[in-house]
Design a protein that fits this description.
Blueprint: H1 13-22, H2 31-43, E1 49-52, H3 55-65, E2 73-77, H4 86-89, E3 94-98, E4 120-123, H5 135-145, E5 148-152, E6 160-161, E7 164-165, E8 172-176, E9 190-194, H6 200-207, H7 213-217, H8 237-247, H9 250-273, E10 286-287, E11 294-296, H10 300-312, H11 328-333, E12 334-336, H12 343-347, E13 350-352, H13 361-374
Parallel strand pairs: 2-3, 2-4, 3-12, 4-5, 5-8
Antiparallel strand pairs: 1-9, 6-7, 6-10, 8-9, 11-13
Helix pairs in contact: 1-8, 2-8, 3-6, 9-13
The structure holds pyridoxal-5'-phosphate (PLP).
Pyridoxal-5'-phosphate is lined by residues 54-56, 80-81, 83-84, 126, 152, 154-155, 176, 178, 190.
Length: 379
């Protein structure tokens, strides 16, 4: 069976985990944790980054930092993972969904302004498949209405918008190092990018259980104590050690994924040209990270037939995101502003193909030939 995903492994993960175990410090902010943060700050010219146990936690930390209160509204697309929404729902916010653009599956930036009310606090653009949202437009709307922008860049690590790394453009950005993402910290993990410096000091406090422990370790206070609300948003050194092994192969992982993505794109172009399917579109102002390769089929039934055809050939292809506004949780905590013109329709057509760092050429070739054989009679 060709799986949909395999967690990325570069080779030195075990060695670094062992090194962490021998260092006598396994809790957060050890050698590997601090090294990873510094690495991201330098690589992406990010102001301040904090590793978290997951991207979900990074978004929770951001929600605490902007003091979301019950009744506040947060705008985002409905076509996204539940973790874009839950961190704000946990603080009592109401989620307001806006339709997507069918070309990139990202929030339609032109619809955001009409969803803003006096209760709106934040916008959460999601860079679907590592393809950038129209950030200039979104930042302009946000600044005119005094809103905070939190980029859900879970899928966007090492993608760029007009040369700027995704996650570094909004007031905050959040990365995921879950095993299904481009870079992993051993299964679960995340990073909060704090681009607006006014949140910098408080971010460390909220992340450290509401204490000023980080200042204490830097010798800036004599003893540490409870100073604010907080939770425990530090990953262990084991997670950071795994991530460090991935960062050492950062470009190589990206190149391998792009190679597979390009191979798929080239192979399926004739299907697109003959009108059988649609392919992902990368806008000119975006450099993407090949997080995902998807096809868009004619409709829901055709997608199911292709899934079955691939399964028969021992290939696992998957779809995702029942749009949040039509899920049970979404009905309790959210509403759609404006029309659902593309979200549901396009979510029902989209199918993701296997794409992972350790994927063999023979596996890529097999996926290609099986997809082509499915359409053989149509072209
Ligand atoms: C994966 C993902 C998340 C959640 O990441 P975790 O690290 O698993 O918490 C959030 N948003 C989007 C868009 C994702 O794809």
């Amino acid at each position: 069976m060709i799986p949909f995903n395999k967690p990325p492994v570069t080779g030195k993960e075990l060695k670094y985990i062992e090194q962490a175990m021998n260092s006598n410090k396994l809790c957060g902010d050890g050698f590997f944790g601090l090294s990873c943060q510094k690495w991201f700050e330098e690589k992406f010219s990010a102001n301040k980054t904090l590793l978290t146990p997951s991207c979900t936690h990074a978004l929770e930390l951001a929600a605490l930092l902007i003091d979301i209160k019950p009744g506040d509204e947060v705008i985002m697309p409905s076509y996204t993972f539940v973790s874009s929404a839950n961190p704000f729902v946990l603080r009592g916010a109401k989620i307001v969904f806006v339709d997507i653009r069918p070309d990139t599956m990202n929030i339609d930036e032109k619809l955001i302004e009409s969803a803003i009310t006096s209760k709106t606090i934040a916008i959460v653009p999601v860079h679907y498949a590592g393809v950038a949202c129209e950030m200039d437009y979104i930042m302009d709307v946000a600044s005119r209405h005094n809103l905070v922008v939190i980029e859900d860049a879970a899928q966007g690590v090492n993608s760029y918008y007009k040369g700027k790394a995704l996650g570094t453009i909004g007031h905050f950005g959040a990365y995921s190092f879950h095993e299904t993402k481009n870079y992993s910290s051993g299964g679960e993990g995340g990073l909060l990018l704090i681009n607006d410096t006014k949140y910098k000091e408080r971010a460390e406090i909220v992340r450290e259980k509401g204490t000023n422990r980080s200042l204490f370790f830097r010798g800036m206070v004599d003893k540490y104590s409870w100073v604010d609300v907080g939770s425990s948003y530090l990953p262990s050194e084991i997670q950071a050690a795994y991530l460090w092994a991935q960062l050492e192969h950062f470009d190589e992982i990206n190149e391998k994924r792009l190679e597979i993505w390009d191979k798929y794109h080239k192979a399926f172009k004739k299907l697109k040209d003959s009108g059988c399917i649609d392919l992902p579109i990368i806008p000119n102002n975006c450099t993407h990270n090949a997080h995902m390769f998807y096809l868009k089929l004619g409709n829901f039934e055709e997608r199911q037939k292709l899934i079955n055809h691939l399964k028969k050939n021992e290939i696992l292809a998957v779809f995702h995101y029942i749009p949040l506004h039509s899920s049970d949780g979404g009905k309790c905590f959210s509403s759609m502003a404006g029309e659902d013109r593309y979200t549901t329709e396009h979510s029902e057509k989209l199918l993701r193909l296997p794409l992972f760092y350790n994927m063999k050429d023979t596996e890529v070739d097999k996926v290609i030939s099986c997809v082509l054989s499915f359409f053989a009679s149509s072209i």
